[in-house]
Amino acid sequence: FAIPVPSGLQVPHATGQLCSKGEELLPEVCVQYHNLTSHPSHRTKLLPVGEQSDPERCILCHVTSAKTDYMPLGGSAKFRHGDLSHSGAPEIPTIDQAYSKISNSITVEWATVPGATSYLLTAEDGDSVIETIVASSPGTVMGLKAATLYQITVRSLSATGRSQASAPKQAKTVLAAPILEVSSPSPDSIFVQWEAVYMAIGFSVSIVRANGLGRIWKENTTNTSLTFTSLDAGTLYTIKAYAWNANGTPGDDSTCNQRTSPLAPANIQVSFDSGALKASVSWAPTEGAFNYTVVAESGSSELSCSTTSSSCTLSSLQCGTVYRISVLASNEAGSSKSPSAATLQTVACAPERVTIQEDPPGHLSVTWSSVDLGDYYVAFVKSDDGLEVHCNTSLTQCSFLSECGFTYFMSVFAYNKAGQSPLAPCCPSDINPILVSSDRVEMVWSPVRGAELYQTRAVDGLSMVECKDTAPACTLSALECDTKYNITVFSFSEVRGSNTSCASQAITTAPCSPEIKNISKDAFSMINVHWRATNEEATYTVTAEGEKGLFRCSSLGESCTLGDLPCGSVFSVTVVAETQAGRSPPSYSVPLETVPCCPAALAVTQVTQSVINVSWTTGAGAQTYVTDLESHTGQSKCHTRQNHCLLGCITCGINYTVALKAISATGLTAGCTFQSYSSSACCPLGVKLYRLGPNGIRIYWQASRGSANYSTDLYGSKGIFTCTPSAGLSFCDVAEIPCGDVYTVMVSPVAESGLKLTFCPKKIYS
């Protein structure tokens, strides 16, 4: 509300909220609220309206009782909104105490207010305000910052309103809990570290067995790390830590569990199986170990096995090897390795490169290669009648007596304190090349008992290609064409060793692919194909393939001739080399085009005395044609894409030679010559008409070059009258023609074929 108040009026301390933001303000004064406190030193200040910047904030006023009259010194105040009573709000609570036990909260206790249904707790730190509503005392404000001083107030709430804030109470949140990182660097120690905590001057760290048994170790420190020693190995411990401030007040604590790493295994025992090349390792179990790992190390390899029990088997040991065997015990904290390693020596590998010679007859000499860790050797010789003898030696050679007609089987073993060497697997005997190409050989063989891996090696004297596979098959690729390789298949076994004394087999790859150098045509229209040959004793076959079929020729050299190729065709020419080893891939193809075909027929037709029409049938492969008429008087020529052509400037009564050229799209030309052609006789000159009586006409002319026979025709409306003179005459009489008609007269030479030309000039007679 707003009232006109004279200057100097004193407003008592407020105890209840009576005004709201919707009141109308008078221009004289505005009541502005500054402190919500019941302390007598805090007063409400009256300001003139002109001295404040935001009248909307000057809304609250406070009175000392629920009903109060304000009177200025010289008159009475006027209240616009009625009586100032507001008796529905609950009383203001009084805080008994506020304290913090957790770094993100403060707990407040106060006396219960009659009529209050809930309470509003407010915590302010100068940067933020956090409020929460609780049903009763005590109440807790959550979401606070650690080690921070807060001002706490409480308001009572009811259905009719809420009270003013209580007198504030200050409380400080405790320190945050340190964030622990723990590890076990050794079986008897645990290392604890953490980051610095805000406002902390010291830390307290304690450790105890997780099962609660035994004593508790507790250490105070100003550092941020600590190590507990003299602990039990492989045991789970619980670690708890908290920080304190300058007043000694402890903060939040943090707890975690950590197990110490186990002790190293002891009493390691190794049992070796020489036949299977495996070893069984056992040891005394250690406290707190969840897993054990056995490691066997040699100079070139490492084997291991893992288990949760106290024994483990190492398989696939190598012959002729000394291993150092150690055991690691581990849990989630780490591992401990046995301080001393046991030593295991395996049996020697089977001797390799076993050879036998009979020199002189009746004496067998057996030799082999020495092997690592072999103390001595025993060579056995067994004949096919069952008799067996042996030789014991530290050398790599033994001699035996033999008899003719017997088959002897040899085997050699190496021995050391671990036992007898395994017998190497046999060599594959039925090696079969199923595919031989210019750069690849595919081979198969029957499996060999005891062999786990096969190595196929191809050597040509300068280079070597090899492949390894567990299957009894191999594909040797990237080989050189037309090359002889010595191919050997060796058998391997992890237990028995390897057999590298297997015999080799010679295989020659298929010939190299030829390269066509050029294709030419000789004077007889034969096609000659030339190529570059790099193979030895190879037969070369040339193939020309086109729409009209396949054409071939063969040669042992570097060229061959293709004949009878059809005209007007396009072919793809390739060359293939063939030897006893196989066929080469075809060479890169080269296109070949034969000349166009000449037309099958040609016709010449006289159009006028000086123009003829030459026509012909289509020639296969021809795109354009050139027609040429030639005589002693001159030449006439035309070039066309059609199958006919008009030739002018022809002299009548002359013999001509007709020639035709068929030309392909690439310019290949076929010359086609036909028989001579005689141009038509010349039309007669000086044609004159003479009357012979009332119904007759004599037609006279001068004979022309090249013709001896003529024909005379009179064309009228009443008929056609023809006269053929006797040979050698140059006139002809036509009698009995109807009078009174107009006639067209034409004298034409007659060809030897009897064809009468119709292009000579005509005369009119009436």
UniProtKB/TrEMBL annotation:
<protein>
    <submittedName>
        <fullName>Fibronectin type III domain-containing protein 7</fullName>
    </submittedName>
</protein>
<dbReference type="InterPro" id="IPR013783">
    <property type="entry name" value="Ig-like_fold"/>
</dbReference>
<feature type="domain" description="Fibronectin type-III">
    <location>
        <begin position="510"/>
        <end position="597"/>
    </location>
</feature>
<dbReference type="Pfam" id="PF00041">
    <property type="entry name" value="fn3"/>
</dbReference>
<feature type="domain" description="Fibronectin type-III">
    <location>
        <begin position="177"/>
        <end position="263"/>
    </location>
</feature>
<dbReference type="InterPro" id="IPR036116">
    <property type="entry name" value="FN3_sf"/>
</dbReference>
<dbReference type="InterPro" id="IPR003961">
    <property type="entry name" value="FN3_dom"/>
</dbReference>
<feature type="domain" description="Fibronectin type-III">
    <location>
        <begin position="89"/>
        <end position="176"/>
    </location>
</feature>
<feature type="domain" description="Fibronectin type-III">
    <location>
        <begin position="264"/>
        <end position="352"/>
    </location>
</feature>
